[in-house]
Design a protein that fits this description.
The chain has twelve helices and ten strands. It is an alpha/beta fold and about 350 residues long. The chain folds into two domains: about 1-120 and about 325-340, ATPase, nucleotide binding domain (Nucleotidyltransferase, domain 5, 2-Layer Sandwich), CATH 3.30.420.40; about 130-315, ATPase, nucleotide binding domain (Nucleotidyltransferase, domain 5). Helix 4 crosses helix 12.
């Protein structure tokens, strides 16, 4: 059985074909980075327009690469939420249209569940399946959540961010310091050149649910650190570099990043990673998890991967490959297979839900 997945929740138009053995037969992603980079973040109206331009050729290419036609599919799966409502509507509406004209059933998928299934699918293919109950840390530019994942894919929310998502905090700090958007990858590339304990950050003390996150305080601490120093000229140099070259190399960034700023970046990244993993470990202990899943765009962060697979987490830790960490459609197709087995199909009247929850 093969499922066509369609993902358009934010700023990447994606389509993929996956079979029931977890083999990704095709995966096509059209990025909008060039469109949004100049604005320092995703502009929802522009994202919707770019999805409209890309959706037809992206889906067509995914089917062609897989050697499939619509009648060959067992189902068409599309992201129904959460995300930007205009972006969601493009992918979901196109999936509805394909389902209507072909008679292939439609399956609605939660974007966050897709990130979890990216790991589950790859671990099965590798012959080291995730053991349940599992603790899932889904961390990206829009989400920072902790879920208990039980056998049969039942979910329970354990904790979430109360303000900025972790990836959002990375991007805002990078933008403040003149590194542009997206900033998380730049900070990750520069952090190894600084001292992660040079700048002491205070961790948020959470009232109520101790497993919740807060990253706005770290972001504000960086802002105050910058305001206390005369950094305007240094930041202007980096912004000028970015205008001349939209994708500077690590060497070019290092040349315009003094040692003190490298220490700041390393310390900020260390603080975010510590915040994530301390609560992930506490959550795993609480539910007696047998394994830990880390997924979402921030799962690409090399510092997070090294810390999680070191001594920070005392369970087996599973990460997706980089291509399945960021938004993609293979994860949407993977999450649709259990629903296909249960006969959970969506009607053509289903609506996009920008605030859809998983649990």
């Amino acid at each position: 059985m093969r499922i066509l997945g369609i993902e358009s929740s934010c700023d990447e138009t994606a389509a993929a074909v996956v079979d029931d053995a977890g083999c990704v037969l095709s995966s096509v992603v059209a990025s909008q980075l060039a469109t949004h980079g100049k604005y320092g973040g995703v502009v929802p109206e522009l994202a919707s327009r770019e999805h409209l331009r890309a959706i037809v050729p992206v889906v067509r290419e995914a089917l062609q690469r897989a050697g499939m036609e619509l009648p060959d599919l067992a189902a068409i799966a599309a992201t129904v939420g959460p995300g930007l409502v205009g972006s969601l509507l493009v992918g979901l509406t196109y999936a509805k249209s394909l389902s209507f004209v072909s008679g292939v059933p439609l399956i609605a998928v939660n974007h966050i569940e897709g990130h979890i299934h990216a790991v589950i699918m790859e671990s099965r293919r590798a012959g080291t399946p995730v053991e349940f109950p599992a603790l899932a840390l889904v961390v990206s530019g829009g989400h920072t959540h902790l879920f208990e994942v039980r056998e049969g894919f039942a979910y329970r929310l354990l904790g979430k961010t109360r303000d900025d998502a972790a990836g959002e905090a990375f991007d805002k700090v990078a933008k403040l310091l003149g590194y542009g958007y997206p900033g998380g990858p730049v900070i990750d590339r520069l952090a190894p050149y600084g001292n992660p304990r040079a700048v002491p950050f205070t961790f948020a003390r959470m009232k109520g649910n101790a497993l919740d996150f807060s990253f706005s305080g770290l972001k504000t601490a960086v802002l105050r650190w910058v305001q206390a120093r005369d950094m305007a000229e240094e930041i202007a140099v980096r912004r000028a570099l970015l205008r001349e070259n939209p994708a500077p190399s690590a060497g070019q960034w290092l040349a315009v990043t003094p040692p003190a700023t490298r220490d700041l970046l390393a310390s900020f990244q260390h603080a975010v990673i510590t915040e994530l993993l301390v609560r992930a470990q506490a959550s795993a202990d609480r539910i007696d998890a047998r394994s830990v899943i880390v997924s979402g765009g921030v799962a690409c962060n090399s510092g997070l991967r090294a810390a999680a697979q070191g001594a920070a987490i005392t369970r087996p830790v599973y990460f997706p490959t980089p291509g399945l960490s960021t938004d993609n459609a293979a994860m949407i197709a993977a999450a649709a297979f259990p629903k296909l087995e249960r006969g959970e199909f969506a009607g053509l009247d289903i609506k996009a839900d920008a605030s859809l929850t998983l649990a």
